[in-house]
Amino acid sequence: MEAILSSIFSATYLAAVLRISTPLLFAALAALVSVKAGVINIGLEGIMLTAAFAGATVGGLLQNALIGALAGLLAAALMALLLAIFHLGFKGDLILGGVAINILGSAATVAIGYQLSGARAGGLSLPPISIPDLSLSFLSEPLQTAIGRQNLLTWLALLSALGAAFVLYRLPFGAHLRAVGENEQAAAAVGIQVRRVRYAALLLSGILAGLGGIHLSMGYLNGFSRDMTAGRGYIALVIPALGGYTPLGTLVAALLFGAFAALETRLGSFDVPSQLPQMIPYLATLIALVIYAWRQRRKAT
Amino acid sequence: MRHKGLIGLLIAVAALGVALLLSVHVLARGIQGAESFERAAESPAFGAVWAINTLVMLAFALFIGQVGREAWRVLLTVASALLIGGLILLVISPQRAGDAYAALLSGPLSRLNRWATWIDDAISLTLVALAITLVFKAKLFSLGAEGQIFLGALASGLVALFIDGLPPALHVSLAVGAGALVGTLWGLIPGVLRAYLGANELVATLMLNPLAALFYGLILERIRLPQSGAMASALFPESALLPRLIPATRVTSAVLWAALAALAVWWLMQRTPFGYALRTLGANAAFARYGGIRLERAIVGAMALSGLLGGLAGTYLALGIYQRLPLAVSSGLTFEGIVAALLARNNPLAVPAMALLYSYLRVGAPIMQNDAAVSLEIVRVIQAIIILLFTAEGLLRFWQRRTAWKRS
Q: Which of B116, B157, B371, B386 could form a disulfide with B249 if both were Cys (CB 3.0 to 4.6 A apart)?
């Protein structure tokens, strides 16, 4: 037991938690923005995959991380725009549209990789390119290991949570976004352009998810592999529920998910089935969902 | 009335006839003309293949009868999606696009084992799509089928592996019952949470799915065969397997499950008070409440029955297809089921035909990749396009307006 505890409360563990939480945090913020605007973005998984693929492929071909990252974000924005046009323009069902985006992202990335590589099953093998770490060499030892060598995107993710809080609660756009999500008719009645706000929310959501995607293929791992998001886009949809649908709550909840995911690799050397710690965040979210719903119901009556 | 009977008779004869031609095509393997009939008739599987193909044709006749003119819209959507998929193919692989499409569209009927894979796949898809239909009809967006498949397979598998000494009929029935029961219970959880607490069923099922898959993995790790490289359980004993209809294939009596399930769900939806509650809930929840319908019961019932069908799909995959517990029972079968349910417009009687249609593409895909070196994922791209085209109502209105404008 002591061995487990000392392994958990260490600087390397904290570093791993931050690393693993990064894509989750980006995607969870993406989910939060879309939910707040009343247009839940089920397509996060597909958008992340597209960004991960476009980033690693363009970046790898040109050997330029910046252009790769921009290509990834552009691809993510296009996928989000597709969903937005489908739902807001053509009145298609939002949830089914999201499902279609996920299928499209998963399938198109594999198909294009297969065709680009000349029909090899493994897909493209490009020289890896990654977004650099932010080296904080002035820090002394435990801090140096914990936060001194984190990826730039990890810092950006933490900043994005603060940014989301600022945008949602301090800017007029954020107020409009929340108004549209809470009561569409009322928002329209006071002159808010509901459709335009929702387009913006879905695009913002797509770009945040895209940042999570490029972190996966250009930071967390070196290169793209099929379905590498491994369900993170779905997990992200429920992290805001655990965080009470606020940006800072979402930040804490995402770190919590990351903490349990990081635990899994640590417990490998101990005799604990790896599935048990993995189950905890799902159970926690389920309980949070029930408590949240129960409180909402009590408030309503 | 006599008129109706005559039409029914004509449809039945036509179905038998087309099914005969189809069966001969599958069994004769390239032999042409009258000789092909002799060759097919020699096959021990001939009768069963013909019977199943007749069911397939009846499923399509039922689909057309049920959705009427809407059938054109379905065909148009699928055809446009295939066309867009073809254009994408032309861009990424201009030389092979023709071969690829030929392989995709004719592949599943080229050999008996490929035909059998098509039928097998359509059975699981029918069960999952019916599970989706039940909840979507009530406007409940539950994606819980994935978890129910895993747990249904696990329950049936455990009964198959660890209870012995039973006569075959009893052993199979017990295994099937266990899968259905566990699926129902797993479907009850999000149903109760939604009905009595108002917890979002989409989020709840998205949480329950990985929990089910993790639990499945946890148990499988403990019962796997230690000496084999693959993570899988031992093969099930003969007494727990579903009876086979066609030798040397995995086409089992589950063909009848799919047909009966479609009829049962239809009857439930259209002919019972529960079905009325379900449909009213889907059409207008507020109206349903004012009308005195007990929403809670309808929600819980729909989610539980959907769970039953999901569990049954898992049972079928374990007992009928894998005949053991594999590492991954399903990889996203729920989403494929959504497409089939969507094309069937949530009409249970139209589901089998749409499952067959979509399975046809699913089975053709690896044949296309094998024969023409074009990624099988193209079919999933087509799937996504089908969903987008079919649900974008504005697109239809835009098209209607244009044709109306042209006519005037």
A: B116
